[in-house]
Recover the amino acids of this structure.
């Protein structure tokens, strides 16, 4: 079976460390191993508009930011297709047909939709487009017949919903669509990296983020003011490393090499954690190490970003070329979908013939 990958991000802000460890890193690894047939990476502007309808300027400005972030982490437009969702209008058309296969109750039960409605304070004034975005995500995935979707774990309910829609479509109209599978990061903490404020998820919409494009001073300032263990008041107090985002970030990012380079008195993270839990290790020392680790990870990314920042026209060309290519693939799937749904009247000679016969005198 062909390995077709689709994944994407909402242009609601620049990409952050959560995106990097939760999804971007896997994409680059798969790309570099060459272990795939096609990879599509989408900037989900239409989806971002579902909860930012009054703010199109924000989405417009962040498309280029997300594209720069993609290129700066090492996604290679010669190997993968980078495209903009709204430039592939077939996706919207598919959504309209899939809507008939999902009940309102099922969408309202989706736990990610529920928590996002709460986080955005929509209460009773939920935009219909926002409520239906899991269906639009199904179109994004199925238009490319993607079977592999690398995501953070907040997206698992979306993938479940997509699989249900695919099964329902294939059952009703015949086998056209492919059931997708989510691929999560191996490392447990990377599946949903917490925010610098200790909240469960680093998220652009909350703003508790360390961005891939943050400079060294900004990273330092964010790390130094990070939430840690509130019970660890004095250096000699025993501390908690669980649910302490400073240690969670180290879990996600640091290697034994980082200890050799920046904190050679410890061999590895287990030793550092043991010292913190016993007492006698101050937060400042751990934060300084974390700051070094993050900057070590971000430095090559920043460097590549600066190169592309000087070639913005090229970046737009990459997106336009990618969108044209994505559109061709989506057109083929839409054609198959319409054929299966019997809404391909003008291409159906047998239909026309039968109606001629029906009215023949
Ligand atoms: P928004 O707040 O606008 O929803 P976001 O920060 O949640 O933005 P998305 O564009 O919705 O980012 O997510 C893109 C991808 O990154 C998804 O696969 C999502 O699961 C993953 N992702 C987002 N935040 C995290 C995180 N903190 N940890 C791991 N993966 C994440
Ligand atoms: Mg999100």
């Amino acid at each position: 079976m062909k390995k077709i990958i689709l994944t994407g991000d909402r242009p609601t802000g620049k990409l952050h460390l959560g995106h990097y460890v939760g999804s971007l890193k896997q994409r680059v690894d798969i790309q570099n191993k060459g272990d795939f047939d096609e990879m599509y990476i989408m900037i989900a502007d239409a989806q971002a508009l579902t909860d930012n309808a009054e703010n199109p300027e924000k989405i417009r400005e962040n498309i280029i930011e997300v594209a720069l972030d993609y290129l700066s982490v090492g996604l290679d437009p010669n190997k993968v297709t980078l495209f903009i969702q709204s430039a592939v209008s077939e996706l919207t058309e598919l959504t309209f047909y899939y809507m008939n296969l999902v009940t309102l109750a099922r969408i309202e039960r989706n736990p990610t939709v529920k928590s996002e409605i709460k986080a955005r304070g929509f209460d009773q004034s939920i935009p219909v487009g926002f409520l239906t975005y899991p269906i639009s995500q199904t179109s994004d995935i199925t238009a490319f017949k993607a079977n592999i979707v690398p995501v953070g774990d907040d997206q698992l309910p979306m993938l479940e919903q997509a699989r249900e829609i695919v099964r329902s479509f294939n059952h009703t109209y015949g086998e056209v669509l492919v059931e997708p599978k989510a691929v999560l990061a191996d490392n447990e903490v990377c599946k949903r990296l917490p925010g610098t404020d200790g909240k469960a998820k680093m998220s652009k919409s909350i703003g508790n983020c360390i961005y891939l494009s943050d400079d060294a001073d900004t990273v330092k300032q964010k790390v130094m003011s990070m939430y840690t263990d509130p019970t660890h008041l004095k250096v000699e107090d025993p501390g908690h490393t669980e649910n302490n985002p400073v240690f969670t970030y180290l879990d996600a990012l640091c290697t034994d090499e980082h200890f050799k380079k920046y904190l050679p008195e410890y061999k590895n993270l287990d030793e550092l954690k043991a010292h913190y839990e016993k007492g006698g290790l101050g937060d400042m020392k751990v934060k300084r190490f974390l700051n070094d680790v993050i900057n070590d990870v971000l430095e090559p990314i920043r460097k590549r970003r600066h190169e592309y920042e000087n070639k913005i026209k090229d970046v737009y060309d990459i997106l336009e070329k990618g969108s044209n290519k994505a559109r061709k693939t989506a057109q083929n799937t839409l054609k198959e979908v319409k054929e299966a749904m019997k809404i391909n009247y003008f291409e159906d000679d047998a239909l026309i013939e039968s109606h001629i016969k029906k009215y023949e005198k």
Observations:
- The chain has a mean pLDDT of 95.
- The first strand starts at residue 4 and ends at 9.
- Residues 87 and 108 are 28 Å apart (CA to CA).
- The chain has two domains: 4-192+312-353, 216-308.
